[in-house]
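Page 37, top half.
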Amino acid sequence: MAATFPGATLGRWHDTPVGPHTQSMYQIAFPPPLLASFLPWLMLNRDGLSILLHPGTGDAYADHIDHAVWLGSVLPLRKNVLLKLRKTASHS
């Protein structure tokens, strides 16, 4: 994936739930100009995995809940974690 999409930042596997996520996950970050080519690739190569695609606006709640797009099954998220992040950011 890194060779096909230079500019994408590959994360690491999280074998236990992290942040608002209730299942294991892998994170990939990419700049907005890659969306037009990266999204079709994800759609064709997700191999049955659920993929949460969201922006990084600094409002974790809005990014994960209001502005999110799912490929595959929608997985539950811990909204309480996202709300805590929102409250923490607003007090900074």
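Page 37, bottom half:
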Amino acid sequence: MRIAIAGAGAVGRSIAGELLENGHEVLLIDNQPRKIKLESVPRAEWLLADACEISSLDEAQLQRAQVVIAATGDDKVNLVVSLLAKTEYGVPRVVARVNHPDNEWMYNESWGVDVAVSTPRLLSALVEEAVSVGDLVRLMTILREGRVLVPHPDDPLQAADELFFVTSEDVEEELARLLRSTE
């Protein structure tokens, strides 16, 4: 799968390294020459360009990407990249980093964001989980057709639904087997 990452700072490079290890093709885009560190992720493609500019995204051939990750340290940039990726290039999946929790409300379908990743929310959820064993902790909101979805046991799965499982290692193989049996 081809994945373009806007933002070649520590976060973007780290994500790129993991994705490359998992067999994906990765393009890192950044407009700051000091962040272009070819030796840090040598198997990635690199582009020194402004990911908020259409001409740069044309050069990046963003229409070839199956996923775009907006991972800069600037929420405005991440939202613009997300919107352009989705509306101008038809990228099927856009994941965006939320830097400031007050901006999280904007990271939604209207800005082209499929998945918003908020480090403060994830960290606080993990702390809550650690101190309140047995309680449910919200990690992310699930949306369907622009609405918040609170799943119920009788809800049918739909084609575009994504499932998120939290399980122990001893049942991972059984869960994978059950999911494969529906193909």
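Margin note: The mean pLDDT is 86.
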